[in-house]
Amino acid sequence: MSAPTIPKTQKAIIFSEVGGKLEYKDIPVPVPKSNELLINVLYSGVCHSDLHIWQGDLPLPLKLPLVGGHEGAGVVVGMGSNVKGWKLGDYAGIKFLNGTCNACEFCEQSFEISCPHADFTGTVHDGSFQQYATADAVQAARIPQGTDLAAIAPLLCAGLTAYKALKSANMRPGQWVAISGACGGLGTYAIQYATAMGYRVLGIDSGEEKAKYFKTLGGEVFIDYKKSKDVVADVIKATDGGAHGVLNIAVDPRAISMSTKYVRSNGTSVLVSLPKDAVCESEVFTQVVKSTSIVGSCVGNRADTREAIDFFTRGLIKIPIHMAPLSSLPQIYDKLMQNEVVGRFVVDTSK
Ligand SMILES: NC(=O)c1ccc[n+]([C@@H]2O[C@H](COP(=O)([O-])OP(=O)(O)OC[C@H]3O[C@@H](n4cnc5c(N)ncnc54)[C@H](O)[C@@H]3O)[C@@H](O)[C@H]2O)c1
Ligand SMILES: [Zn+2]
Ligand SMILES: [Zn+2]
After folding, report:
1. Model-level ipTM above the cut of 0.95
2. Most buried of 17, 24, 181, 312 (most Cβ within 10 A)?
């Protein structure tokens, strides 16, 4: 491929203060560092974490002004002098974990997210809500040529995180996974990964539309948390003793604490969602006698990314996405705040 013409400026959504105006405007195209790719981002998923970051919910350092977004899928159009193993025209994905040192004890053991030198997209590194973004060439996701880039964009956080959280629940095929927050972005991917991995899926969320959607994606039992009089009892009854694994995706600390009550003896409750200042309460006596585990799970490493993409490439993950122009991001944030998004929004950066 001959070198593409790279413009000097591009469209982006950028904000200058926490909770401040989300401006759709022209900003300079970034220049890749020696270790980085320059990716023409065509599509980006919109994660609830982007909303948390903009609202200042998470105790993370931020660069300001900031371009958010960490589910970018696009084409390599440039690269720094030290990049190996990539060529212009390759498909590449931008993830939350933008870059790592590859030398510390955590990187050495593939716990890349724990790298003390990690660089994070959409917090301290401008993200995928722009037409051109940079990503470390080692961490950037490799997307097979010919992939539908709009459809794969949400895999780079929602799909990857859901898949890794299921691995963290340490279950066997045939066992029950309860997905709390089953019909938002991460939840819908979790339903299909769980089904593909051989688990039985119980979903907790609310509303007729979400209940129907849950079944079309392969879910088995749906509990509407707004209608149920006792979610804990309902989960225990439906799973004949409690869920072997729980994925806490609902942005609600009460729902997270509840999971410690309906997880089965010897099962695992996985913490994924990040409600502001949340605390997970677990009764010590119950947890001790049931020998349950509560574990945190954050995105995934490069191997998890490759595996998550492989499920998609084999046609096992088919989530209908909502397409919208990048300029409509503020309206998408409004819908996320109201729990109105069924599945995932993907923005087209050309509009
Ligand atoms: N750990 C990680 O690596 C990681 C990665 C990505 C996102 N996240 C976090 O995961 C959370 C979910 O992200 P998302 O993009 O899927 O959000 P989303 O808004 O698309 O989905 C959340 C879903 O939870 C449902 N819900 C709300 N309250 C509920 C309750 N009490 N019980 C059951 N369901 C309830 C909503 O109706 C919605 O469908 C966010 O906090 C996000 O920051 C964590
Ligand atoms: Zn995310
Ligand atoms: Zn490291």
Report:
1. yes
2. 181
